[in-house]
Every structure is written in C-alpha cells, then in structure tokens.
C-alpha cells in the first residue's frame, strides 16, 4: 500500500510540473507555397468550384487491359494472409473487379454528396461539403471537419455522414460536414515541393474552413487524420471547439507512460488500467514490440523510399489492390491474417473496398499519398508538435481492434482536456467505415458533453 501511495505522489507531482510548463505552448507555422514553380504575384485565387467524379471508356479500357495482363503468383501452402495478400483469394477479388464491379454506379454514389475544389497555397484542395436538409427550429448545424488517413480516402465517411447530417433521434445534434482529401490523396492536388507534412495539411484545412465561413468548428480524425486534426487544435485552439479521434498513439512517450508499462501489470489501479488495458498491453514484448514490427514494414518503405515501390503500384491495378486491401484485412482484425480470404468481406463489401482502390487508381495518387510518410518521419520524431499538449476539449473512441491500444492515462498525457474516453464494443482501424453507427454515437456523445459545458 505504501509503495502505491508513494508512486502516486511522484507521478502526480511530475504530471503537475509538466502541465504547468507546457500550458502556454502553441504550434506555429508559416504559410507555404506548394504549387509548381514560384508563387505568382498578386492575391491567391479563392474561387470555390463545383467538382464531380467522372470516368470514360478509355479509362476503363486501360484498367481492364492492365488487369488482363496481370501475372498470377501462387501463394505458399497454408499461408493465408500471413505473407501478405493471399494470391488465390486475390484472383477472386480481381475477377469480381474485372467482371462484376460497376464503377459507373459507384461514381453515382460518390456524387450523391456535393464535391468542390478550391486552390490553397498553390494546390487544388478537394472536399465534400454536406449540409443538413433540415435543422430543428431554434438550433444551428454544428460544423465538423472529418479527415481520413492512408490507405483510406474521403469515401471512408460515406456511411457516417448521413448519421450526422440527418440523425434519426430528435434529441441528437445536427452536423454540417466537411470532408477534405489530404493534399496528395484522392482528388486533391499533390504538393510539388518537398516538406509537406501533417502540420502543413492542418494549416491548409484551417484556411479551408475559414474560406467556407466557419470561425469555429469541431474536428474528427483517424490514422493520419488523427495527427492532422490534432495539429489543427495545436495551431489554433480557439477555432477548434472540440477534437474527436479514434487513433492516438503516444507521440512522445514520457515517464508516466514508461512507469505504467513497467508497473501497470502489477499495480493496474495505480495507473487506471482496466482488464482490457492489461489484455491489450501485456506481455509487452509481444503486444507492443513484436506485433508492431509485424505490421509496420510498409511504413519503413514509405518513410524512406516511397517513389520506388509506388512506381510499380501506380502501373499495376492488381498490385495496387493487393497493397491497399491487405491493410483493410489485417488492420481491421489481426486474427484475419489466419483466414484464407483475410476476412475482407466480414466487415466491408467488395464494392466499397474497390471504390476506395479506384479513387487511388483513377487519381494516380498512390505515390504522393505514400510520400506523406516520408515528409512526416523524414524530419525526425522530435518535431515541435510532438512536444506540445492539446488543450482543446477532446474525445477518444477506443476501438478494441485498433493497431495500437492507448489506455486513458496515455491519452491524457497529450490531450489535457479529455472530455470523453469510450471503450468501444467492436471495431478496428477503419472504424468510421466499419462501424459508422458506433462512431456517430460517440461523436454525438462527445459533442453534447462539450456543448453542455459551454452553456
């Protein structure tokens, strides 16, 4: 008992010291120019242009020709998805893509929401802007920006958007949703210069929201979207009323986290660890080290030489599909590695999965999307944003099959105003796409909590 009390006093004193030291820190950035060549004289063009996803017979003819020319490779016996995407099952996916997948119908689905483009810092930024059809009398829609990650896209949010803009419960809040494509992803133009990282994306998205007339708004993100929206909260905390994330790996592990790893299994209550925390964290070598190594090979490639492997993926639709869809298998549930079909259609439909792949294919964005890793990791792991806490009210949805489990204690080291921490009953890395209803409910719960406190 004495040891627990002493440890509690030491950790509490340390946390108090760190909080007081960093409370006034704000992330800073200078405006950039990411277009080709030198910036032109005069003011930036702020025109907002409608955009529609389209296709052509030539585009489909080229795709089918490349699919038909693929060279099958046999998977090892009894390998399932443990060596990557199983080649036997890949033939079935490719056959469906070539013969049954209706890209024209999926384009109609993509265009059900209004798309736009506008030029910011020299590059075209693509985004969806979905306004609610009806807002209850005496209320206003709550602006919310939602940011995707890799290898996802704005399409991840298509099941979530109507739950937020047209909620069935009359007591729920009504949202006005903006879903941009990160520059270099989907239909946003890729930066033409080196150095475009998450902070640069955050700065551009702040400009986008202001251009749309939002002085204050909420933000949600997962994967890279977690970091971009976190940077938005660090850059201009007065504009971000609340931040909701479903991915929050520790950016700069400190002493409290280290002590919790070393002592948490023996003294779980001291660190607020639950049974789920213990199950997901221990044994540490297996859960935090070995598992991370198994699933991070892609990251080392993309953080060092993205253009090399990207060139092959940009030429081969089958290679691209295998590279992207393997993540939608293992990152949804690591046990899916032991299934012949990777469990792909247990959580998603092939139409939705291939629609996301097609966004990468038709836009030719796989290389530029992979470069985002190089730009973020290439500057080192000690960037200013990794040291600055977030003092914007934050909600965290903790999905049980997320790539890295983050206990509440770890989340509060970065997000000092944690308003909600929700252990979710199911779901993995692509939670917004996999479990849109659960995600919508948690965004509602978090936003209601923040709005009540502001009243």
UniProtKB/TrEMBL annotation:
Membrane topology field: Single-pass membrane protein
Reactions accelerated catalytically: cis-stilbene oxide + H2O = (1R,2R)-hydrobenzoin; 1-(4-methoxyphenyl)-N-methyl-N-[(3-methyloxetan-3-yl)methyl]methanamine + H2O = 2-{[(4-methoxybenzyl)(methyl)amino]methyl}-2-methylpropane-1,3-diol
Give GO MF terms, alphabetically: cis-stilbene-oxide hydrolase activity
Q: Which GO terms describe its biological process?
A: epoxide metabolic process
Does Hydrolase show up as a keyword for this record?
Answer: yes
The enzyme class is: hydrolase
SUPFAM superfamilies reported in the protein's UniProt record:
alpha/beta-Hydrolases
Q: Name one GO cellular component term.
A: endoplasmic reticulum membrane
Q: Which domain of life is it from?
A: Eukaryota
What EC number(s) would the UniProt record show?
3.3.2.9
Q: Name one Pfam family in it.
A: EHN
Query: Which cellular compartments is it found in?
Result: Endoplasmic reticulum membrane; Microsome membrane
The Epoxide hydrolase N-terminal domain covers: 48-157
InterPro entries membership = AB_hydrolase_fold, Epox_hydrolase-like, Epoxide_hydro_N, Epoxide_hydrolase
The UniProt entry, under PANTHER family, shows: EPOXIDE HYDROLASE 1 (PTHR21661:SF70), EPOXIDE HYDROLASE 1-RELATED (PTHR21661)
Family according to the record? Belongs to the peptidase S33 family.
Q: What does this protein do?
A: Biotransformation enzyme that catalyzes the hydrolysis of arene and aliphatic epoxides to less reactive and more water soluble dihydrodiols by the trans addition of water.
Query: What protein am I looking at?
Result: Epoxide hydrolase
